[in-house]
Amino acid sequence: MRVVTQTVQIGQLMSMMETFGIKHSARSLADQLDTAERNELSCREFLATLLITEVEGRNARKSKRNYAAAHFPPNARALGEFNPEELESGMSPSQLAQLAELSWLDAHGNVVLAGPPGLGKTMIALGLGLRAIEEGYTVAFEKMDSFVKILDDAEVDRKAGFRLKYLKKAQLVIIDEIGYTPINRNQANRFFGFVSDAYERTSMVFTTNNEITQWVELIGDQTLTTAMLDRILHHARCFSLRGESYRLKHPEAFASI
Hints:
Layout: H1 10-19, H2 23-27, H3 29-39, H4 43-70, H5 93-100, H6 103-106, E1 110-114, H7 121-134, E2 139-143, H8 144-153, H9 158-169, E3 172-178, H10 185-198, E4 203-208, H11 215-219, H12 222-233, E5 236-240, H13 246-249
Parallel strand pairs: 1-4, 1-5, 2-3, 3-4
Helix pairs in contact: 3-4, 4-7, 8-9, 10-12
């Protein structure tokens, strides 16, 4: 085994590290060496410091990539900025805290947020999406009208096809504003197909201005609606929000949502 006895320049070390893909640690190598020498770190301690830097850098890059792929609207707010105590009913602070733990996501469960417009359903959904990305999950967000268009165009439009592929692979899919726009029978069938494929494999968050019992009016078919809801509600946490418009009380939180 050859022993390196000559002094190795930092630039050479950085180059070798980048060759092996250790790019994040390579960028801070000079500072890391200075810190190690100043604090008289052991070889093990220095190696651990380098590896922690690399892992943190990769996780930050992954989160940035996942955030871009989620297609959140601008200025999505963290879950902690929503105060459920301002609602009359439907969700308590402890229930929101439990959702933030994401155990339902690990179990491939769903979340349904129902209620009149302006109560913060979308804000909660986006907050859950942001929380999931922080924990390393892949997330996709679409409003219902955009989601239906993707399903319609996926076979003939390359961009829509790529987006549908990502939606099918994402660990959490958020579909916002179900019930605002009616859909036809073919769209309902494609929607059901997506939900059926995602069943017990992908977690989904739905926001809707209609109660679940009213979805048959949106879908247009009792049998299809029942089959879809069986899959959605089997492992779901459902919240029916009531109260004064959160949007009117806090317009700054909804400026770009």
